[in-house]
């Protein structure tokens, strides 16, 4: 199963603000959950839960955003592939 694309919200404000919300994804591929020692429970702790919801006020004011939908455990946009936070 391919990972879902992030949500990209177009910038409509005069201010140069673009929100990046890379750890809000809550979509976990089956292969990831199946390979985690403690299942989904061990992966959820890597999320920044509900940060995407905090951003909606700024988004409604016209600021653009890139919001991850795939779980951080599956793809972490802030880390090189060799710098995984997972311990298997």
What does this structure look like?
The structure is a single chain. The chain is of the alpha+beta class and 88 residues long. The relative contact order is 0.33. The longest helix has 6 residues, at 30-35. The chain has helices at 30-35, 40-44, 51-54, 56-60; strands at residues 7-9, 18-21, 64-67. The mean pLDDT is 87. It has a three-stranded mixed sheet with strand order 1-3-2, with no helix packed on it. The chain is built from four helices and three strands, in the order E-E-H-H-H-H-E. It has a domain at 7-67.
Helices and strands in order:
Layout: E1 7-9, E2 18-21, H1 30-35, H2 40-44, H3 51-54, H4 56-60, E3 64-67
Parallel strand pairs: 2-3
Antiparallel strand pairs: 1-3
Summarize the structure.
With 88 residues, the protein is an alpha+beta fold.
Helix content: 10-25%
Structural class: alpha+beta
The radius of gyration is: 14 Å
The strand order across the widest sheet is 1-3-2
- Which blocks of ≥5 consecutive residues have pLDDT under 50? none
Net shape:
elongated
How much strand? 5-15%
| Oligomer designation | single chain
What is the mean predicted local confidence, pLDDT?
87
Give the beta-strand count: 3
Number of helices: 4
Distance between the termini: 21 Å
| Helix-strand string | EEHHHHE
Taking the sheet with the most strands, its summary is: 3 strands, mixed
């Amino acid at each position: 199963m391919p990972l879902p694309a992030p949500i990209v919200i177009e910038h409509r404000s005069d201010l140069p603000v673009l929100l990046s919300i890379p750890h809000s994804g809550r979509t976990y591929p089956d292969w990831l959950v199946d390979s985690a020692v403690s299942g989904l429970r061990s992966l959820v702790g890597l999320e920044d839960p509900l940060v995407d919801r905090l951003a909606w006020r700024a988004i409604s004011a016209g600021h653009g955003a890139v919001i991850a939908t795939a779980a951080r455990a599956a793809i972490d946009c802030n880390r090189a592939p060799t710098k995984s936070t997972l311990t298997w």
